[in-house]
Structures are given as C-alpha cells and as structure tokens.
Specification:
The chain has helices spanning 2-37, 107-133, 148-173, 178-231; strands spanning 45-47, 50-52, 54-77, 82-87, 94-95, 100-104, 234-236, 241-246, 253-254, 259-276, 288-293, 301-313, 318-325, 337-354, 359-361, 364-371, 374-386, 389-394, 401-403, 415-417. By secondary structure, the chain is α+β, with helices and mostly antiparallel strands. The chain has a six-stranded antiparallel barrel.
C-alpha cells in the first residue's frame, strides 16, 4: 500500500516542481524585459543653440513683379531697296550711334548722282546765258534801263519829248509850221513804242532768267535726292546699344519694309509694374527701388521711379509705374522677369529672429521658443527679410529665446539643453 501511494505522489511532485521552475523562469524573463525597457522611456535631451528675438526699425516696402525692357530699342531698316554687300555687326555686337550695320550695292545710286550733277551744270550754264541777255551780274538786281537797247530807246524818246515840247512853244508864236510839229509828234510816238517794246523784251528776258534760276534750284534738289539715296546705301545704328537681332545676311536683297537688325540699349533698363490703388499715395517720381531676379537671387539692383501714368486702369484698379534700373555691368537682360521692391519713406519697428530658426513645411512656418529647459512650438507669420534675419509678424515676442540649431530633432514639449 505504501508503495502504491508513493507511486502516486512522485509524479505529482514532479509536475509541481516543473510548474515552479517554469513560473520562476517566466517571472525572470518579464523582469528582464522590464529592466531593458525602462531606459527607453526616459525623456531625450537635445542640445540646441538659441538667439533672442530682437526689435529693429525696418524700412518698409511693397513688392510687384514685371519684365525688364531696354531703355531704347529700335528695329533698323533700310530706306531703299538693294542687295547687301557688307555686314558690319553680328548678334550681341556693341554698336555706337552712326556705326555701319550693313552696306548695300551703291553702283546705280552713284550713277544717278553723276547724272543729277550734269543736269545741275547744264542748268547753271543756261542761267548764265539768260543773265547775260539782260546784263545781269552775280548779286545784281534787275534794272531794264541798264540793257543797251532799252537805254538807247529811252534816250531817243527823251530827246523827242524835248523837241516836241519846244515845238509846242514855237507853234504858238508861228515860228514852226503845223506840219513840222505833227512830224515831230509822230516821231516821238514811234520812239515811245520802240522804248516800250525794248522794255517788254527786257522783261521777257528777265522772266527767262527766273525760269533758269528755278531750273538750277530744281536740278540742285534732284542732285540732293540722288546723294541722299546714295547715303542710304549705308545703314547705320541710330543709337548706342547691343545688336539683339541681325536679320540681313551677305548677298540678301532687302527692301524698306524688311528689318535688317534690332538694336537695344540695356543701361539703364526699364521695368513697368502695377501699383495697387491703396498704395498710390506712397509712390512718387524719384523714389528708390530695388530689383531681384531668379538669375541673380543674392544680388539687388538699384533704381528709381522715373515715370508714373496719369490714369488708373479701370479693370484692375492699378496704377502703371515705370522705373529705371541701373545695369552698368550688363548682368540684367531685357525680357527677364524681376521682382521690384519699392521702398517707402518711413520705417516701422519689427520683431526679427534668425532665418535658420524657422522650419517651414507645406507652407506652414514654425519656430521653437525655449523656456525653462523645454521647447515650445509656435506657428509664426513671416514678413520681410533683412540680411540673415527674418521678420516675425506674429507668434514670437521680442526678447524670447528661439532655437537656432538641431531644430529638426526638436518637438513640442521636448527637454533641451542650451
């Protein structure tokens, strides 16, 4: 009986011991897990550097965008038709005013000049001949009585008049017969007709002189036109600038309607922008502006407002303004898209923080303000930039400390070490 009971107790004891060992083993494992997890739940500490938000007076401005354009731009065309025999410029060439761009074939023009010159000489010869008929000398006024025929007829007429008046006195006394008086009177009338005829002929000859002079002037005009047409064989640049386009090639036939080149002056450059109606009182001629472009993001180009439109555009309620931008080095190019800042006359206080303290994601800007060893996340509204600082319009007060390093590792409420 004792052996039978022992046989029942031993297996039961084995089971109890096994369960005890398993329980201890499991308990030890949980303890280890607990001990290993405990360090992971301890709060992490991030090292950061900080900077205070400061207050500074900033010059205020408002921004607008526009496209740069040349101060002057001209499309050069020939005044006459012809074949291009020489080209003096290429794309990008700098030209001075009066410098040749292209030269056209001028053989026909030179022949027309020679023909017109011969016509002038012919007209002058005809004029000299006409002047000699009336006894004119260079610079002398016309007087028909200086013509010998007219002068002789006048002398004979005056003599006949004297004889006739003498006969009138003698006929009353009976010293001269009536027939003699009538004979002298007829002679006087004949000489008068001769004088008037000579005078009329002299005036006709003088009219021929005037016609000859008109012919000389007309021939001179034709010569001037021929010379002018010859000068058009050389096509010059009307302004100083750079060749933006060259449309004519050697041997090409051009006409007055075809463009041979485009010349643009790039210093200064112009930019037209639209000013909102509410900002009109802040804009005046001579006001300073600055320009930035995507090609030179870190460079500002200065200028001044040069022209203001007298009208506000009815559809957009904006005012068109033109500014002249200095471009001494030629870095800016016509056609570039630019952002213009128009500086206002007065400055206003602003809160500034380092730009590196701002983290922007999906258009939302955040900073971390450090207080009592912990980071406090703030949503901020940014304003204009000033060197390596940025204006904070809301979210941070002056004097508060903001994290400026390791901000990607910082979260709201995290412990930090300065």
């Amino acid at each position: 009986m004792f052996s039978h009971r022992l046989a029942q107790v031993v297996p039961l004891a084995v089971v109890v011991v096994t369960l005890s060992v398993f329980s201890v083993s499991c308990g030890g494992s949980k303890a280890n897990v607990r001990n290993e997890a405990t360090p992971l739940t301890l709060p992490a500490v991030v090292d950061v550097t900080t900077a205070p938000a400061i207050t500074r007076d900033l010059p205020r401005f408002f921004e607008a965008t526009g496209s740069l354009a040349g101060d002057q731009q001209t499309e050069v065309a020939s005044s006459i038709a012809g074949k291009v025999v020489a080209v003096g410029v290429d794309l990008g060439s700098y030209v001075k005013r009066g410098q040749m761009i292209v030269r056209l074939d001028d053989v026909d023009s030179k022949l027309r000049v020679a023909q017109a010159q011969a016509q002038v000489e012919q007209a002058k010869a005809a004029l000299r001949q006409a002047e000699e008929k009336v006894g004119l000398r260079p610079g002398q006024a016309f007087d028909p009585n200086r013509i010998p025929e007219v002068a002789n007829a006048r002398v004979a007429l005056e003599l006949a008049e004297k004889n006739l008046r003498r006969s009138e006195k003698l006929i009353e006394s009976g010293d001269v017969s009536r027939s003699s008086y009538d004979q002298q009177k007829a002679q006087r009338d004949q000489l008068k007709e001769q004088y008037e005829s000579a005078l009329s002929l002299a005036r006709q000859n003088y009219a021929a002189v005037m016609t000859a002079r008109a012919n000389v002037a007309n021939a001179g005009t034709l010569l001037g036109l021929a010379r002018r047409a010859l000068s058009y064989a050389l096509v010059f640049s009307p302004i100083d600038g750079y060749v933006a386009e060259r449309n004519a090639d050697l041997g090409e036939y051009v006409s007055p309607t075809s463009k041979v080149a485009t010349v643009v002056r790039i210093n200064p450059l112009r930019i037209r922008i639209d000013i909102p109606e509410q900002a009109i009182p802040e804009v005046s001629v001579g006001q300073s502006v600055s320009v930035t472009t995507s090609a030179w993001p870190d460079k500002n180009f200065s200028g001044r407002i040069a022209r203001i439109s007298p009208n506000v555009t009815a559809s957009s309620r904006t005012l068109s303004v033109e500014a002249d931008i200095e471009n001494n080095g030629g870095a800016l190019k016509p056609g570039q898209f630019a952002t213009v800042r128009i500086l206002q006359s007065r400055s206003q206080p602003a809160v500034l923080i380092p730009a590196r303290a701002v983290r922007t994601e999906s258009g939302v800007s955040r900073v971390f303000v450090i207080k009592d060893g912990r980071a406090e996340q703030r949503l901020v509204q940014l304003g204009q930039s000033e060197s390596d600082l940025v204006e904070v319009k809301s979210g941070v007060a002056a004097g508060e400390q903001v994290a400026t390093s390791n901000i990607d590792q910082v979260s709201d409420g995290m412990a930090v070490r300065q």
